[in-house]
Predict the 3D structure of the following.
Amino acid sequence: MTEQTNKKLFKLYIKNNLLKSKELNEVIGEIEGKNKRLDLELLNRGLVNEEDNAQIYAQFFNLEYVNLENINYNPAVVEMVSSEFASKYSIIPLFIYEGITFIAVSDPFAYNNLKKINSFIRGDYKLVVTTRTKIEELQEQVFAKLSTETAIKQFVDQDLNRDQRYTSDLEQAEIKNAPAVKLVESLINEAIVLNASDVHVEPFEKFVRVRYRIDGVLYETSRFDINLFSAVSTRLKIIAGLNIAEKRSPQDGRIRLKIKDVHYDFRVSTIPTVYGEKLVIRILDTTAFTFTREQIGFRPEDNKILDKILSSPHGIILLTGPTGCGKTTTLYTFIKELNSDSSKNIITVEDPVEYTIDGVNQVQVNPKANVTFANALRSILRQDPNIIMIGEIRDEETAEIGIRSAITGHLVFSTLHTNDAIGAITRLIDMKVQPYFVADAIVGVIAQRLVRILCEHCKKEELTNEAEMKILGLIKPQKIYRPVGCPACKYTGYKGRTAVCEIFEMNTEIKEIIQRNPTTERIRKLAIKNGMIELSEVGKKKVLEGITSVFELLTIISENE
């Protein structure tokens, strides 16, 4: 039976131009007589991927192939099976149409698994084919939300004595706040499934609002009674190592968790408000840094300038922009790239260490142990570094040490909070760094913003209207794309973010002008004359290329006006 199946599969792989006869014959020869399926063997060897096999299964069984990202599934129908069932059998119901339940499967050959459908369906159903990964992603998304809702309901239903619930004793809090333990765990898991960067837990007069920041935008996901808040905040403080009795002063803490074999770092911040402490959890996947310049959003013309800047043997390279614009991610990308040369000694000073990079010596700032940016920098200069990364230049002392390090033969990377690239020059001078030091040390400055990427599945092509033509500087109408919304993008119209960057490269002419302590505007005009493209212009190019929308462009323009 397996041999007949493999022969039919062989023909389908050839028909779909997925593999050549020679490759398939080699695999067939190796598995002959071993009762192994060709499709699984090809997948295990990396010769095909899940999507390839799903398409083949659809043709083999005359079923429809679906991409679950584009399906309007019904959460109530998905919940016909448990999370454990969906994971174990890779089967998930999607929706009911005209009395027929549509069910996604990843392996139609798994007959024993398919029999399990009869355990939750009592009427007609139709199978569609997708990948195991897509089923798992949908399962995580739906059941993470369900888990949070269930945790809130159980919390409300829990018959706890209010006078004893909010104990300040740490050990007792662990016992008394068991429902809070489950709710906090559910909130964190749901945030990870949704690829959120932050979780906001905000108390108001009668309720607590939970919001997740996804692709830079906050979305409300759930609410619960204000009477439950104290237990939730206590639980978060306990696992973040914060003082649960202190509610009048801001606090910062950290949580380290391993979730599904992935290590996450959570930064927890509290601040007192009228109705209690607002808590914000920043989520960092400390081991999953895989970004490249292209993935961040740098264009080929940007990379030509960056190649030149990054090849400098010494000097300082600065990343500027507001909080949350991806400065640190871009810095890590540069450091990871330079780390490919094993002859370089790279040391970073960070607060906190957001990602770990093999081969890079990363120092965590710890004010309690007197490990400040300035103190750490003085120490690492005695560690014979070639490349130094300073997480942020926050004060005059750090600025001076960073600049002097750049002048004395080190390549230094750091960040500053300025609106544009040229602003970094005047900011350093404002920090009492001498203009001739600034001119001599700076190699380049990259100003960065993040804009949301239009969803490829639903973005709509239209001609620009008069207002859009004015914003884009067009003389006549031109094709652009607008957001729509679909299941793939959770009906936001956007999926993911990309960087818009303004790259300033230092040259002799600008050095001479900086030493005369001129205005920011004069330096900017000369930089543009020498080829620097401003943030707004780069953003316009990304709109015209169909990457983002005019609405997102306006967030860049308004920030810099």
